[in-house]
Design brief:
Elements lengths: L21 H14 L13 H12 L5 H18 L7 E5 L5 H14 L3 E6 L2 H14 L4 E2 L2 E2 L2 H11 L5 E5 L9 H14 L5 E7 L4 H8 L5 H17 L8 E8 L4 E8 L3 E5 L2 E5 L4 E8 L3 H11 L2 E7 L5 E7 L6
The chain binds N,N,N-trimethyl-histidine (AVJ).
N,N,N-trimethyl-histidine binds next to β11.
């Protein structure tokens, strides 16, 4: 999955100058996060090869409803979604391709409507990009596939320049946006809007606020897969940054914050311990928590507010029967600045 971090001008890679390596960015993020009073490790770094495998397993868990529910929404509404784009989309731009099941449903509908559609997966992971491209080529041998290696904003801008005529349809599915704090989500969405042209569309998946027990079950499974996913971040730090975290000295914790509202993930230190990362030492207290992820659970009013703050026009909203999840279809209207 591509980074959902809001891109600032400093971290949008210049097309020709090599960006700071991912490893260097990882090192900076981890050291800065561990040095904070409220220690935090950014969730974008969950997705190394093993972390991506674990997320695939999370999506199969009985309690992890978002993937299944959003798939159901797209199965039911793909045609209606695409009917909103005059002339059908010229291109479908996949921001963070995932396992591609939901994208495939939308592409099928797009190919049926417009015939000649470009599929542009955007990802910072070359491996994820290659498998997304391969999957869709296998499904539609004639499909024009134009993978874009880069972050969401730079990748979308490049795909938009290449896809003539408008409109294109960009996908930000899976409630990946929910990993961002509010202001970062607004920044990312604004940047995406600026990368698009008038008449282009963005389909955004939002996991909605619901019964707390359902939320907790989704982020703390009895099988321990989510715990392994969370702890894998420490294993990755050990391997890639020369860390010495002892995984057995931490446990996974998922909490519900009614304020945002959001689920939050933590790694709790099971004793007082010193850890070393990239040559720097940190003293963790007994019971001290490292914050690893927020997964925002939106209200309908918040979805409206996000569209407005990011400068998009709302076109339509699609829900599952229980209203657990929403896919919001937004359009770029007259320039909003
Ligand atoms: C892929 C970011 C949408 O926040 O629900 C799953 C990741 N974390 N279980 C989410 C995740 C813990 C997931 N997203």
């Amino acid at each position: 999955m591509a980074s959902t971090r809001a891109a600032t001008s400093s971290d949008v890679p210049h097309p020709r100058r090599p960006a700071p390596t991912a490893r260097e960015q990882f090192r900076r993020d981890v050291l800065a996060g561990l040095a904070r009073t409220e220690r935090a490790l950014p969730s974008v770094w969950f997705y190394d090869a093993w972390g991506s495998r674990l997320f695939q397993r999370i999506m199969q868990l009985p309690g992890y409803y978002p993937t299944r529910v959003e798939t159901e929404i797209i199965e039911r509404h793909a045609d209606a979604m695409l009917a909103s784009l005059p002339g059908g989309p010229s291109a479908v731009v996949d921001l963070g391709a995932g396992d591609g099941a939901k994208t495939r449903l939308l592409l099928r509908a797009a190919v049926e409507r417009a015939g000649d559609v470009v599929y542009a997966p955007v990802d910072v992971s070359a491996t994820a990009l290659a498998s997304a491209a391969g999957r869709m080529r296998a499904a539609w041998p004639g499909l024009r596939v134009r993978p874009v290696h880069g972050d969401y904003v730079a990748g979308l801008a490049q795909a938009a320049r290449a896809s003539v005529p408008a409109p294109l349809l960009a996908l930000l599915l899976g409630s990946n946006i929910g990993n961002l704090e509010w202001s970062a989500a607004v920044s990312l969405l604004r940047a995406l809007r600026r990368a698009l042209r008038r008449g282009d569309h963005l389909l955004v998946g939002f996991d909605l606020l619901k019964d707390e027990a359902v939320l907790r079950a989704a982020y703390d499974d009895p099988e321990g897969v989510t715990a392994a996913f969370n702890l894998n971040l420490l294993a990755r730090i050990n391997r890639e940054l020369g860390g010495d975290f002892e995984l057995g000295c931490f446990r996974h914790q998922a909490t519900f914050d009614a304020g945002r509202p959001a689920m939050e993930s933590w790694l709790v230190s099971l004793r007082s311990q010193v850890v070393t990362v990239a040559g720097r030492r940190f003293l963790l207290g007994d019971g001290e928590r490292l914050h690893t992820e927020i997964s925002w659970k939106y209200t309908e009013a918040q979805v409206t507010a996000l569209a407005r703050e990011a400068g998009f026009e709302e076109v339509a909203r699609y829900h599952d029967e229980r209203r657990w999840f929403q896919d919001a279809l937004w359009r770029v209207g007259a320039v909003a600045g």
